[in-house]
Amino acid sequence: MERLSRAAIFAIVGVILFIIVIIKSSVVVEAGQAGVLFRPFSDGIDTENTYGEGFHIIAPWNDMIIYPVRQLSISDKMRVLSVNGLEVSVDGTVWYQPEYDKLPFLHKEKGRNYESEILAPAISAAARSVVGRYTPEQLYSSKRDVIQAEILDEVRKELKTQYVQVNRVLVEDVTLPTKIKEAIERKLRQEQESLEYEFRLAKATKEAERQKIDAEGKAVANKILSASLTDKILTEKGIEATLRLAESPNSKVVVVGSGDSGLPIILGNQ
């Protein structure tokens, strides 16, 4: 009976150990993640393989380090200097993700804190380099898309050999000192008013030119018409007009002599 009890105890212990080994040996990599295998009794990090999503069995003494490999983002507010030495504040967001096939090297050389170790400093350096090329006016108005593209290029250069892929840089806001911002807005308003005045002036000038051309055209036409009208033509036109008036059913015509031009004089017209 005692032997049976000992056997039962050993069996139970064995089952428990087996369960522990199974639990320790099984690893589930969730969606959007990847694993790096660490072998403490062998060659350390397995740099040949990146372990994808799913269920994996590993030796109990090994360790699987899990990393998110889907697109991530990091936002920061940086104080940087413009080309003329004025301090501006830039709010930006960078979208990035680890290079999947290079994940073991990222863990081996940079570690879990690679965002703060290499990504954030690269973003800061790129922002300072790019913003330092522009004046506050350019930063405030028309250069944001260009700045975003240039910061992206700079960050990619910095991280080219760091096993991190940068997908996009978004500059959300550029904050200038209050006095500088007010001066820029005042200048922009003045420029807009100047452009509006120039537009109205150009429009008025074109209208004056149009009226001048129209008047000159009418004057030429009248001159040609006056030169073409003779006394005979005028008399003929007068006779035609008199006949049309006389034929009107609403008229009563009484001809008394003739006028100075030889045309009849019509009286009693109703």
Topology:
Layout: H1 2-25, E1 26-29, E2 33-39, E3 44-45, E4 54-57, E5 63-68, E6 72-81, E7 87-98, H2 103-109, H3 114-131, H4 136-140, H5 144-158, E8 164-175, H6 178-228, H7 231-246, E9 251-258, E10 264-269
Antiparallel strand pairs: 1-4, 2-3, 2-5, 6-7, 7-8, 9-10
Helix pairs in contact: 3-5
Identify the notable features of this structure and list them briefly:
Tetrahydropterin Synthase, Chain A; 3 domains; transmembrane; 10 strands; Band_7/SPFH_dom_sf; Band_7; three-stranded antiparallel sheet; 50% helix; alpha+beta; 7 helices; 270 residues
Write a structural description.
- It contains seven helices and ten strands.
- A three-stranded antiparallel beta sheet has the order 3-2-5. A three-stranded antiparallel beta sheet has the order 6-7-8.
- It has 270 residues and is α+β, with helices and mostly antiparallel strands.
- The mean pLDDT is 77.
Instruction: List the strand order in the largest sheet.
Output: 3-2-5
Can you say what the CATH homologous superfamily of the largest domain is? Band 7 domain
Cα-atom Rg, whole angstroms?
A: 46 Å
CATH second-level architecture of the largest domain = 2-Layer Sandwich
What is the total number of structural domains?
Answer: 3
Would you tell me the structural class of the helices and strands?
Answer: alpha+beta
How much of the sequence is in beta strands?
Answer: 25-35%
Q: Terminal Cα separation, in Å?
A: 148 Å
The percent of residues in helical segments reads 40-55%
Count of DSSP strands: 10
Query: What can be said about the biggest beta sheet?
Result: 3 strands, antiparallel
What is the typical, i.e. mean, pLDDT? 77
